Each structure stands twice: as structure tokens, then as C-alpha cells.
Amino acid sequence: MDARTKILDAALGLLAKGGAQELTQPRVCKAAGVRQSHLTYYFPTIQELLEGVAKYTLDAMTAELAKQDPAKRPATLLDAAIATSADKRRMRMVLGLVTTADREPKLKPRMREFLKEIRQGLTQMLKAAGLEGTPDQVAFMHSVTVGQGILQLARDNEESRQEAKRVLQMAIEFLRRKS
To answer: Least CB-packed of 66, 86, 146, 149 within 10 Å?
Structure first.
């Protein structure tokens, strides 16, 4: 693995573990096992590192979605929504990516493309659950799932997990009534 990839993997791990505030040059260098000169050669500023991590993460998540075996997906739409919303690392990455794309407009087109790919997969899941999978249904389910994930990340207790399960179930029941 080359130094650039080590740096990106280390930064991604720090971002997923503790959020964007973990991305200091000394922490990234230590986690990657590289000298600061290597870090600043590839990423002269933390902003450029965040941009690199955002692109690297989006590309990796897109590749993961593309090769996902349908047989290994969660059994139901509710199971998938619960698993996604409960995944702290993914929610931290989402928050970091959104913040980075907000600060760096040139990442927005890649973020839009990535969200389109996620929503294509969600469309298939909604259809498999017997729903129409309209763009509005997909946007609604996506928003509720991510929103619950962020709320769980903030609260991180059994009450928030149970609330997320109930809210996600309500969202699916709402979509079924509207179909």
C-alpha cells in the first residue's frame, strides 16, 4: 500500500471513529505510520485531506454498493433501515462528507452522483418490499433513515435505538398506505 492510500485509510478511520475533529496532522501521521512530510506532500492542508478522504470514501462506498451480493442484504426493508441508522461509523462518515462537500463545492457533483447511486439501491429495496419505489418515496425513506441515524449518533442509547426502530417502522407503514 502506498503512502497516499495509508494516509487516506488512516484519516478515514479517524473520521469514522471520532469525527472531523480527529483529523489533525499529528494524529493522521501517527495512524498512517508516515512522517509529516509525506502527509503534507500529498495533502498540504487539512481541507485538502478532507477533500481527498471524501472522494476516496465516496468511491469506495460506490464500489461496495456495486458489488454487494443481493443474497447478503438484510432480510427486510426495516432491517436494512435499522442497520443503516445504527451504524455509527457510517453516520460519522456521512456527517464528515456532508461538511466537506459544504466547504468544498467541487465535491458536490461527486456527492450528488453517490447519492443517486444510493437511491437506486434503495429504490430496488422499496420495490422488493412491495412498494412503488417512486422518487418521492425513496427520498422520504432515505431522509428518515439518515435522520434517525444522526439522532442515534447524538444520543447513543437504547431509547434512541428503540425510537429509531419505531419511527422507521412508521415510515414504511406510511409508504405502504400511500402506495
So the answer is: 66
Domain segments of the chain as ranges: 1-44, 48-178
> d(Cα 111, Cα 50) in Å, to the nearest integer?
14
Q: Per the structure block, which three cell numbers stand in for 81?
A: 433501515
* C-beta separation of 44 from 76 below 8 A: no
CB atoms within 10 A of CB 30: 12
Over the chain (179 residues), the average pLDDT of each successive run of 10 is 92 80 88 94 86 75 61 65 81 79 80 84 82 93 93 92 93 87
83/168 Cα distance (integer angstroms): 11
What are the distances in angstroms from CA 155 to CA 86, 97, 142, 163? 11, 21, 20, 11
CATH topology of domain 48-178: Tetracycline Repressor; domain 2 (1.10.357)
The verdict on pTM exceeding 0.70 is yes
6 vs 28, 32, 34, 47, CA distance in Å? 10, 5, 8, 18
